[in-house]
Design brief:
Chain lengths: 337, 596
């Protein structure tokens, strides 16, 4: 197993190198001159030139690239020009916020989508199947900023159940001592129930928003995959052996149907992690997505490159985790190292 | 086996009593009656065979008995009574107690019938636990004991095996173990040996017979193989299109089949002592069979037959100077799987060390003369398919030579061979008539495919004319040419596959079990068609099969392979009636024959 993991990591290196090169070139190809942007609207030509030299943008592309790679080797992703902070620090602060939100959103959607998909497959064309269809269609067709705003309007403005959508924690609380960067876990580790509850309150609405959005692919995939497995020969054998419907559906069918579902989960997770900018905007969430978008608008190269590279690494690790999970679920996969 | 006197020792009340059973399926085209008003009784300790071709409703009947019909199916009329219980009226939990404990089922395709990601021992435990057959601390030893009862060697180890780690025969033993774990009274075996080798079939069937007999169980054996039913059943029920057409003691039904359909089935079953023409139904003797009517006139057709090759501008060596195909010391090795092998292959060039490779084909030599048909037989894993793939030039050889009409085609990489003009001289008919046709191509498009890629017929109308000509040759009605594969029957699809293979007038056709997926009556027609085409077009056949009876009918010579080597080859009559190798004798002995 370990050799397989190492091999997979080795295979991922060329694609990471590719990501480094492509993001470097793409950020350079973006319209807009960062030197002019940062020198300010009133700057003279000389001032802009001065900024350009300071940023190293007067050098040739290969030399800029060499410098970038050399910094990267030292673990330095450069500095954000807008915030003045090192990109590494910013990503380290913001990635847990996004990851916590995405994970919780995914848990919410899995908790709803998988049982829904299973029931829809076990009883096709029943009311639960139609519910599943309506929910998944609604889930994908409602944009997240819309669901987010509706939820805020209803639960914060009208009902007053949810706290103000202003970031990860109410201003009256201080963040728990950082261990993982996930406020829920950190506050639980610190034994601080109040903070835990406050963090959960803040997380709840954005997580539900994400959950509703990511419900559709998971529920649809569970349903389709369950339908295929339920029609297979070994399920018939299990039925013919008199096993209870629960054993047949859960132990025999669902474990086999999980493989495509796990793949979908991985894709949904990596997609949400970077793409939930809108949710982060609506809930003023200090996540990595909004950080990248702001940097992109400002032609701030370093954070954009750092963001893409982080995402690529996350994606590689996530896929690896999924493959390992595959091996755990399906013994046939273990052979093919 | 026809044991004892079936009439005298049966109790008056049968174990299973099916009366006037009708099963309906609601489909997109309305309600289909898969089984119509059938009556069937199985006495205690009796083995009843249900025989019929695909679509006869034999499996549906058994599903109805177990009440495991698909969602779309339902018992519309009649009753099923199992040891006094009305199966149709029983509630779900009562049925669950019956299934597995009182009646159980073994299936066709044993590997698919087992949960692929659950250890086989655990699957047996699931059944035991469901029916409270063992305490939880004794359940593992009980499961191992059951594996031992079905003659699985090293049961303690195999308990932890997954289905994909076991052979087909071994999987079927596990399925039998599952079915017999709770000592049921009735075992339904639905085509239990289809897809297994003859010798495996014999061991599996003998095992089932022994286990059921020693427990006094009743058995329903569902099969399309009359020979199998004759050997293993007390009584045989013949079904056709949802009806029971005949039911009699098995010895009697084969001696004096009463119903015309039974007679037709009997005739179509290849067996010793009958020729190819004898397989066809009485009413359609050669002169009246449409396929012959179409095939015959083509014999003198210009552009067909032997003179085509001259038109193609290939110089043919003189008659009988060298055989069409000469295979010499052919070897195919596959690397054994694993990281160490691939690493060692990376670092040291040249041949890999001996234990790291698996020799699928181990230095075999044979020839095929012009116009000759040679049968290549052996059990799964013997290397016959690998050999045919190499001759077909779809995979590369490891060593040895394949000379075809004087050229060493074995030296040409398989990738390049596809573009050479030689390609059209060797064509293939595949095992599965459905899977070997592109589902989005019409029959005409499928037949035209090789013509468009390699042929010299150009222009829409000319290609169409050639397709129609080919369709006539293989007895495919021209109006079916515009249909898609799913709109054709199995036999019609087989004809499309054959028409595609002969479209370029090849010299050699490799037939890879071309009739294995077909019903016997269709098989009879297709085999006759192949024989006629060979007579008309003068091609050579390499006929790959595991069915010795079929090989005997079609082939001039037979090659018997075992574990990558040829154990025996010679004239068909000699090999099959006076086999020299012990292996050939074992193969022949394992074939069940209906009494003729």
């Amino acid at each position: 197993m370990l050799t397989v993991i190492l091999k997979r990591l080795l295979i991922a290196i060329p694609s990471l190198i590719g990501v480094v090169i492509v993001t470097f070139l793409l950020t350079r190809a973006l319209p807009g001159d960062p030197a002019a942007y940062f020198a300010g609207p009133a700057a003279t030509k000389e001032a802009i030139q001065e900024v350009r030299v300071k940023l190293g943008l007067d050098k040739s592309l290969p030399r800029q690239f060499m410098r970038y790679v050399a910094d990267l080797a030292k673990g330095d992703l450069g500095q954000s020009l807008t915030t003045g902070q090192p990109v590494v620090t910013e990503i380290r602060n913001r990635l847990p916020a996004s990851a916590e939100l995405t994970l919780l959103g995914l848990i919410v959607s899995v908790a709803i989508a998988i049982p829904l998909g299973i029931f829809a497959a076990v009883k096709p064309n029943s009311w639960i199947d139609h519910t599943c269809r309506v929910m998944t269609t609604a889930g994908v067709s409602l944009p997240v900023f819309f669901t987010g705003l509706i939820l805020v309007y209803v639960f914060y403005y009208l009902l007053g159940w949810a706290p103000a959508p202003l970031g990860r924690l109410d201003i009256f609380f201080s963040p728990p001592p950082p261990v993982t960067g996930f406020y829920l876990i950190d506050s639980a580790v610190a034994g601080n129930v109040e903070t835990f509850r406050a963090a959960l309150n803040q997380l709840f609405l954005p997580a539900v928003t994400l959950g509703i959005f990511s419900l559709a692919p998971i529920a649809r995939m569970t349903r389709a995959s369950m339908l295929a497995v339920l029609a297979s020969d070994f399920v018939r054998t299990a039925r013919a052996s008199g096993l209870t419907p629960f054993t047949v559906v859960v132990t025999y069918a669902f474990r086999n149907a999980m493989l495509p579902v796990v793949t979908t989960l991985g894709m949904v997770f990596s997609f949400l992690l970077g793409a939930n900018v809108l949710v982060e905007k609506v809930f003023a969430w200090p996540g990595i997505g909004s950080y990248a978008v702001e940097a992109l608008i400002a032609s701030d190269f370093a954070p954009v490159q750092g963001f893409v590279l982080t995402m690529a690494i996350m994606y590689v690790l996530l896929n690896l985790a999924i493959d390992v999970l595959y091996g755990v679920i399906d013994p046939r996969v273990r052979l093919e190292g | 086996m026809s044991g004892g006197l079936p009439m005298s020792n049966h109790p008056p009340v049968p174990l299973l009593d099916i009366k006037d059973l009708t099963v309906e399926f609601s489909t997109r085209r309305g309600i289909v009656r898969a089984v119509q008003n059938i009556d069937l009784q199985v006495a205690k300790g009796e083995t009843v065979g249900i025989v019929g071709e695909s679509g006869s409703g034999k499996s549906v009947t058994s599903f109805a008995v177990m009440r495991i019909l698909d969602r779309a199916g339902r018992i519309a009329e009649g009753s099923v009574t199992f040891s006094g219980i009305d199966v149709r009226a029983a509630d779900d939990s009562q049925m669950r107690d019956l299934r597995g404990r009182e009646m159980s089922m073994i299936f066709q395709n044993p590997r698919a019938a087992l949960n692929p990601i659950r250890k086989v021992g655990v699957q047996i435990e699931d059944v035991l636990r469901q029916h409270a057959q063992a305490d939880s601390d004794a359940i593992t030893s009980k499961a191992i004991e059951i594996l031992d009862q079905v003659r699985i060697a090293r049961p303690r180890e195999r308990y932890h095996a997954y289905p994909f780690e076991l052979s087909g025969g071994m999987c079927q033993r596990v399925v039998i173990a599952l079915a017999l774990a709770c000592k049921p009274q009735l075992l339904i075996a639905d085509e239990p040996t289809t897809g297994l080798d003859v010798t495996t079939q014999k061991t599996v069937m003998d095992l089932v017979t022994e286990l059921t007999r020693e427990r006094g169980m009743s058995t329903i054996l569902i099969t399309h193989d009359l020979g199998l039913a004759a050997v293993y059943c007390d009584r045989v029920v013949v079904m056709e299109k949802g009806h029971v057409v005949e039911s009699a003691v098995s010895a009697a039904i084969f001696k004096a089949p009463a119903h015309p359909y039974t007679r037709k089935l009997m005739r179509a079953t290849p067996r010793p002592g009958v020729g190819l023409r004898d397989l066809l139904p009485e009413e359609a003797l050669p002169a009246d069979e449409p396929l012959f009517r179409h095939a015959r006139p083509c014999a003198g057709h210009p552009g067909l037959g032997n003179d085509t090759k001259d038109v193609d501008g290939r110089d043919k060596p003189g008659h009988d100077s060298e055989p069409l195909l000469v295979v010499e010391k052919l070897v195919k090795e596959y690397p054994r799987r694993g990281l160490t092998t691939s690493l060692s292959k990376l670092f040291q060039r040249g041949p890999a060390p001996e234990p790291d490779v698996f020799r699928a084909v181990d230095g075999i030599s044979f020839t095929i003369a012009r116009g000759e048909s040679v049968g290549l037989v052996g059990e799964s894993g013997c290397g016959k398919s690998t050999t045919s793939m190499m001759v077909m030039r779809l995979i590369d050889t490891t060593d040895g030579a394949i000379r075809f009409g004087g050229d060493d085609i074995g030296a040409i990489p398989a990738k390049e061979f596809a573009t050479l003009p030689l390609r059209k001289r060797i064509q293939m008919v595949f095992q599965d008539p459905t899977d070997s046709l592109n589902p989005r191509f019409t029959a005409a498009r499928a037949i035209a495919d090789p013509i468009l890629r390699l042929g010299d017929v150009r222009g829409r109308n000319a290609v169409r004319a050639r397709c129609e000509e080919l369709a006539a040759q293989v007895g495919l009605p021209v109006e079916l040419l515009d249909r898609f594969p799913h709109q054709l029957s199995g036999g019609q699809k087989a004809r499309v596959g054959i028409a595609r293979a002969i479209a370029l007038n090849p010299d050699l056709i490799i037939l890879d079990e071309p009739t294995a997926a077909l019903d016997v009556s269709v098989q009879a027609v297709v085999l006759n068609l192949l024989q006629d085409l060979k007579d008309t077009l003068g091609m050579s056949y390499l006929f790959v099969s595991h069915d010795l009876n079929v090989v005997r009918l079609l082939c001039d010579r037979v090659i018997v392979m075992q574990a990558g080597r040829i154990v025996e080859q010679g004239a068909t009559g000699r090999v099959l009636f006076a086999p020299e190798a012990q292996y050939t004798r074992d193969l022949l002995a394992a074939i069940p024959h209906p009494p003729v």
